[in-house]
Write a structure and sequence with these properties.
The protein is mostly helical. It is 66% helix and 9% strand. The chain folds into 2 domains: 217 residues, Cation efflux protein transmembrane domain (Alpha-lytic protease prodomain-like), CATH 1.20.1510.10; 76 residues, Cation efflux protein, cytoplasmic domain (Alpha-Beta Plaits). Strands 1-2-3 form a 3-stranded mixed β-sheet. The longest helix has 30 residues.
Length: 317
């Protein structure tokens, strides 16, 4: 996935959220609406999350060291996981606390009644523009995958995070608009509290989804099925390797893939033939799947009386 597209989407979201956070907080100070306060904190949390994503991307570009021989690519997953924690605690739990407080002691909005409606409408326009940028950048890399599959299968964390945050922000703004509108119409501040609770639940759900996806990437995910197919095809393409006995792949980062495979070679090949076969297979793998950066191929002689094309283990990736 293009890091340039991810960075563009992050900066678009960061600019929108900073402006929205300020206007929402001013609206809260003028009206005392708990939904506006929850939305203010939500935008502050989102702004902090975009900074975390940018920091994670920068730290992931560090070169490998003896202590970290496979590099720092997974730092992008670590910082994306921190985003989920911030969204859960600073966004979701704070909104739920504020909702509980507002429902217990409701107050109508009696001053500057037009301010929250105007702020929410402007915020929706800005969030929609940010989401549009994230969608455009995602469309450039997701291919024919559906949105749910793209978010679940993407090895790059930035675009899925921004997509979920911006979508959640738009839905949260709708909740706030409805709750503030009902509070103004009925004069009952409970509606304000209920809207705040809905925002809190929404943020908690999004945070849990993000945490689960980032946890999977942190533990280590294999290459996509298409990449696995291309790698196997590249290994046996020239005939100097007779079969792939088994293979394991793992993402060391969004754009860095580890490939380890045991390959079957002809029993009559000498050391030079085997070396040339391995080197050729590595070149073909890198040409077919450029993100395959670390490749380890172990030559193996097929056992007599057994097929050179063994059954693939159930857990092979």
């Amino acid at each position: 996935m293009s890091t340039e597209g991810s960075t563009k989407a992050i900066f678009a979201a960061l600019g929108a959220n900073l402006g929205i956070a300020v206007t929402k907080f001013v609206a809260y100070l003028l009206t005392g609406s708990s939904a506006m306060l929850a939305e203010s904190i939500h935008s502050v949390a989102d702004s902090g999350n975009q900074v975390l994503l940018l920091l994670g991307g920068k730290r992931a570009r560090r070169h490998a060291t003896p202590e970290h021989p496979f590099g720092y690519g997974r730092e992008r997953y670590v910082y994306a996981f921190l985003v989920a924690i911030v969204l859960f605690s600073l966004g979701g739990l704070f909104a739920l606390y504020e909702a509980w407080h507002k429902i217990r002691d409701p107050h109508p909005i009696t001053t500057w009644q037009w301010v929250p409606i105007a702020v929410l409408l402007v915020a929706m326009v800005l969030e929609a523009a940010s989401l549009r940028t994230a969608v455009q950048e995602s469309n450039a890399v997701r291919g024919d995958s559906g949105w749910v599959r793209f978010i679940r299968r993407s090895k790059s964390p930035e675009l899925p995070v921004v997509l979920l945050e911006d979508t959640g922000a738009l839905i949260g703004l709708m909740f706030a608009l409805v709750s503030v509108g009902l509070t103004l119409i009925t004069g009952n501040g409970v509606w304000d509290g209920l809207g705040t609770a809905a925002i809190g639940i929404l943020l908690v759900v999004i945070a849990i989804v993000l945490a689960l996806e980032m946890n999977s990437l942190l533990v280590g995910e294999s290459a996509t099925k298409e990449h696995v197919r291309l790698i196997k095809q590249a290994i046996v393409d020239r005939g100097d390797v007779t079969a792939v006995i088994h293979m394991r792949t793992m993402h060391l980062g969004p754009e860095e893939l580890l490939v380890a495979a045991k390959i079957a070679i002809d029993a009559e090949d000498d050391a030079r033939d085997i070396t040339q076969a391995i080197n050729g297979a590595e070149e073909r793998i890198r040409a077919a799947v450029p993100i395959a950066r670390l490749i380890y191929l172990e030559p193996h002689l097929p056992r007599r009386g057994r097929s050179a094309h063994p059954t693939r283990p159930a857990n092979e990736t």
